[in-house]
Amino acid sequence: MPLQPWMKLMSVDDHLIEHPRVWADRLPAKYLQRGPRIVDEPSPSGGPPIQVWHYEGKRFPAIGLNAVAGKRPEEFGVEPVRYADMIPGCYDPRARLADMDLDGVWGAANFPSFPRFAGALFTVESQDADLGLACVRAYNDFVIDEWCATAPDRFIPLIILPLWDPELCVAEIHRTAAKGARGITFPENTVPLDLPSIYTDHWDGVFSAAEETGMPLCMHFGSSGSPPATAPEAPYAVTIALYGTNSMSATAHLLFSPVFHRHPGLKVALSEGGVGWVPYLLERIDGTWQRHRWYQNVVKDVRPSDLFRKHIYGCFIDDVAGLKARHDIGVGNMTWECDYPHSDSYWPHSRAYAEKVFADIPDDEVHQIVELNTRRLFGFHDGQVDRATQAEG
């Protein structure tokens, strides 16, 4: 079987559910009542109290959005309303390690839940910028000092940013890099968050700091807060099926923008965006560039697909179509995801399922996709993999 026992599955996209004391243990006392805290509220059904996040006078009831690991598909759709409704691996890093071992997964990068995938909640919902900044820093300290410190060789630390202020973003990137951060969550599109676009110079300092620290921007689909628009009568299944189009849009923006020309060392991961669409989109983008670049405000001497292969990593869970087209995409541009504890995950059968998906692919390519590309992207190496990477490089 191509997925050999010595290959370590490294997921570039898992999720953690913040436990109730993430901010209570880290915020200054003056912020505790307005900062994120769990409140027990009466259940509408008359059952046990439900647990709800409160922040700056607002309530956020989905404490475990899509935290359905351990449930059958027939049970999906009823979101956890208490921590007791989730398996402990959702919010406890030691229990998560046990769940990863059961699943045959070695390492993982985890996105936040309550702060949203790119931490945008503290940008969108904070009335007090100082409180928002304290919340961003508290989350990052939790991820690095508590969650990832539980197993530094297995958890890849991803941070969030105070997106409302690029100078604060730069400071937070350097602060957390010194503590061991390896990646930055960043919106797939900043405009729906009422922030300047990547076509401006607004984010140049942020992108430069990411280059300097060697941290990729991890753009999870949905991180813009703008799901694909559908008909009002359409079931949510249509939105779920179309979410990869957000990653397609992000790719088009990145390749036609000045970002990679100004920042030749920047890397981007299109988290949970899939990869099967990549060959078509690159063909379409290159064709558009070939025909229309002369009168457009785009760089005219670098083919967009060349930028993609230098800067962008696609991320997928079970993209059979993408694997068939892997040489058109670039084997070195593909990474694997588990998506624990969300509904797209195959937990606790991820490794067994991956063995089927990778059954007809050569060992060296499988090893790249499930492990080596991820370690290179995040600079997250151990001695054995360093030697393997050097041998292949």
From TrEMBL:
<keyword id="KW-0456">Lyase</keyword>
<dbReference type="Pfam" id="PF04909">
    <property type="entry name" value="Amidohydro_2"/>
</dbReference>
<dbReference type="InterPro" id="IPR032466">
    <property type="entry name" value="Metal_Hydrolase"/>
</dbReference>
<dbReference type="InterPro" id="IPR006680">
    <property type="entry name" value="Amidohydro-rel"/>
</dbReference>
<protein>
    <submittedName>
        <fullName>Amidohydrolase family protein</fullName>
    </submittedName>
</protein>
<feature type="domain" description="Amidohydrolase-related">
    <location>
        <begin position="92"/>
        <end position="380"/>
    </location>
</feature>
<dbReference type="InterPro" id="IPR032465">
    <property type="entry name" value="ACMSD"/>
</dbReference>
